[in-house]
Amino acid sequence: MRGASHESLARAEEVLAGTTPVEGLGSELFSIARLVDGNGALRRALTDPARPAGSKADLAQQLFSGKISATALEILTAAVTGRWVSGRDLGDALDQLSIEAEVAYADTMRKLDEVEDELFRLERVVAAERALADKLSDRRIPVDRRQELIRGLLQGKADATTVRLVERAVDGRGRSFAASMRAYQVAAAARRNASIATVRVAAPLTEMERSRLAAALGQQYGRDIQLNVIVDPNVVGGVRVDIGDEVIDGTIAARLDEAQRRIAG
């Protein structure tokens, strides 16, 4: 999201931040996002740059008052009064706000760490189970049936916030399951003013090694670092760390590749 859309999302996020996190708000915002996705006339009316902000706010009030919570309506109104580079951006913003509402609620309930860990673990399970991944992403299977499958897998094993987010990842709104799960983890880390480091190693790290690595990365980047550790047998010695678009590759394989490039060059 860029330009005016980025600024409009930021203003709506400020409104969300000023509300009391409650269960169900995220689901409301996501439902509105899906409604905006599927109704071109509504999307154009709420994002028309030639239409005064007050008129768009009035329209949102007329359409949604009494049908969604006052908090959801306040956030929606803040969103529609902004300017959007494209109509799709409004739906994306409401989707993002729904994620932030969910992680805010988990944080309030002191379950944010639990939810973040469950999301990461499930992402790895799905990545390792090709048959499951194919079922969850098969657009020929109705969304509700795929969501029922994931609810069955998580029943009694995950927090309700985790289940709601994973159900949305199955829906996707055009985004892959893996990309959605990653976005949720990033939002959870951002709630704690932290960044996610994906760490690939050949063998599990001890708690002391995890603590030292997190501290070292935190000192280097100037913020808290959440480690998501993946044990990968293809890693030959050392460790590979991905933080955003940056890669720190200290594996033996990487060093050998670098040596070969120098020799060839």
Automatic annotation (TrEMBL):
- Recorded coiled-coil stretches: 105-132
Q: Which Pfam families match?
A: OSCP
Instruction: List keywords of the entry alphabetically.
Output: ATP synthesis, Cell membrane, CF(1), Coiled coil, Hydrogen ion transport, Ion transport, Membrane, Transport
Give yes or no: UniProt keyword Translocase: no
Q: Which GO terms describe its cellular component?
A: plasma membrane; proton-transporting ATP synthase complex
Q: Name one GO molecular function term.
A: proton-transporting ATP synthase activity, rotational mechanism
Q: What is this protein called?
A: ATP synthase subunit delta
Q: What is the lineage of its organism?
A: Bacteria, Bacillati, Actinomycetota, Actinomycetes, Propionibacteriales
